[in-house]
Amino acid sequence: MDITLAQALAERRSVRTFAERAIPLPSLEKILWAAQGRSGEDGKRTTPSAHALYPLRLFVLAARVAGLECGLYALAPEGSGLKTVDGADLRPALCDAAIGNPEWIAEAPCIIAICADMAGPARAFADQPPCGARGARYIYLEAGAAAQNIQLQAVGEGLGSVIVGGFDDEATAGVLSLPAPLQPLALLCLGFAAPEGS
Questions:
Q1: CA-CA distance, 48 to 140, in Å (whole number)?
Q2: Cα separation of 164 and 193, whole Å?
Q3: CB 135 within 8 A of CB 121
Q4: Would you indicate the residue range of the signal peptide (predicted)?
Q5: Can you name the residues that pair with 115 across neighbouring β-strands?
Q6: For residues 145 and 83, what is the distance between their CA atoms, to the nearest angstrom?
């Protein structure tokens, strides 16, 4: 599905009810590339990063992705492939860790978790005011850019998405088996939108 950026921006909506249809693996691969893919020979990526530190780490919780077993996967640096972390369906646990137990987390065919190494940028930008906080600000800006790229590419693939930022950080990190200093920043639920009235 080829659409312009203007069309993707106009068509982007939060989708919280998903069809049973599986996401094609090539569509997921394009979405992951949009979020963190290498975009040139110089090592730059699709999402801007302060001092090119690239502290973001993406995890994919696949439930209904054609060609991908159910489970949790880590995206290798520079978007070069998925590595299995856990073979279980962790959506119910992620739903329990979210504020208000939003049912769309448990029903989404796929969830991309945007996580970040919070320590590296804190050290790299420790000399910038406000003291100790500038690195975190850069991380949040980068995560927002990655989330927007995910949502716009999802539109281009005919998929809907919704971003979830309300969750217990420690519980979510536990579900995703995140080693310190990684912290979860956002969850993006993806899938084909259910027909209206279903």
A1: 11
A2: 17
A3: yes
A4: none
A5: 57, 184
A6: 24
Confidence of residue 7 (pLDDT cuts 50, 70, 90): confident
Beta pairing, strands 23-24 & 56-62: unpaired
pTM reported for the whole predicted model: 0.93
Structural tokens at position 11: 């068509």
- pLDDT at residue 39 in the model: 84
In the chain, what are the domains? 5-191 (3.40.109.10)
Section 17-30 average pLDDT: 95
Q: How far apart are alpha carbons 175 and 173 in whole angstroms? A: 6
Q: Do residues 122 and 140 lie in contact, with contact meaning Cβ atoms separated by under 8 Å?
A: no
Residue 5: how many other CB atoms lie within 10 Å: 10
CA distance 73 to 86: 7
Q: Which two tokens stand for residue 118?
A: 């919070």
